[in-house]
Design brief:
With about 290 residues, the protein is mainly alpha-helical. It is about 70% helix and about 5% strand.
């Protein structure tokens, strides 16, 4: 899909403003998790991209010289397409790494001894993830830039790739959350009959687990119902998300809450919550009080 360069600049500018607003809103704990550290790095990368594209676009001659290289409007489209592909390729690795981070937090496994050590580990993993994803896009993927066959001073729009990874990730995690909820409800229904003496403990545990799952899903849906409606509309409409807008901090905040809900439902017994043995990852939108 062809999008005019001013529209691309407007979208990137709005995305940067929204990104930094959410970073400021979560400033007290955003660097306490891998997803938070990655969110800050994403805001920095988006800002750098926006400033670079804006500088090239507003230059009177249509090009600038940087370290002896001539940068033109071709590079505007090239930057947008490359970053769009990198953002698309980051979606699934982010889900895996953030899920592992939240799992370790909830179960208190492999946790660094200090907050500073945790921040350093998250920063290292974030930098490594950016580097490996860029290598994948340039060396292993089938990415081919699409550029107009005209002079650089006649380029007024860029070809932009679409992304569907957001919807795929959301659908998979929501299906997982739904399956866990149905399993918990089904297990609770099976134990409604009068129990034997040796079944009392199992029945109590199952009932408590079902209660945790119910509360977790209720808190998640009450917070993100409007965002889920927006995702459903995107799924039904034949309109794609531009790849350079697909990865943003609002999406990462939703992903953070959804991963926490899935992990709490799947691996965290109610007894741990009651005894305070399970830590909940930081979340600025949902208050996980079970």
């Amino acid at each position: 899909m062809n999008i005019s360069i001013p529209s691309i600049l407007l979208g990137l500018g709005g995305k940067c403003l929204f990104n930094w607003t959410l970073v400021f809103f979560q400033r007290n704990h955003i660097c306490k998790s891998f997803l938070g550290v990655f969110s800050v790095s994403l805001a920095v990368v988006d800002t750098t991209l926006t400033l670079s594209v804006t500088t090239l676009h507003i230059h009177a001659d249509g090009y600038i010289l940087l370290l002896g290289s001539k940068l033109t409007m071709y590079h505007v489209c090239l930057l947008v397409q490359i970053l769009g592909q990198v953002y698309s390729a980051l979606q699934w690795p982010l889900v895996v790494l953030a899920g592992l981070d939240h799992f370790c937090t909830v179960t208190r496994r492999l946790q660094p001894t200090t907050a500073r050590a945790r921040w350093i580990v998250c920063l290292f993993v974030t930098g490594l993830l950016w580097f490996l994803t860029a290598l994948y896009v340039f060396l292993l993927s089938d990415f081919i830039p699409v550029l107009e066959d005209v002079s650089y001073n006649q380029i007024h729009q860029c070809w932009v790739f679409h992304t569907s990874q957001n919807l795929q990730v959301a659908m998979l995690l929501l299906l997982t959350l739904g399956c866990v909820t149905l399993h918990a409800g089904w297990s609770t229904q099976l134990l409604k009959n009068p129990p034997l003496k040796d079944q009392i403990t199992d029945r109590s545990r199952t009932h408590s687990r079902g209660s945790v799952v119910h509360q977790t899903v209720t808190m998640f849906l009450s917070t993100w119902a409007l965002f889920l409606f927006f995702l459903a509309v995107l799924l039904l409409l034949p309109v794609g998300i531009p790849a350079y807008l697909g990865l943003n901090i609002a999406w990462l905040c939703f992903l953070n809450s959804l991963l926490i809900a899935v992990i709490l439902c799947a691996v965290c017994p109610a007894s741990q919550q009651a005894q305070g043995l399970a830590a909940v990852p930081p979340d600025s939108f949902c208050e996980w009080r079970l």
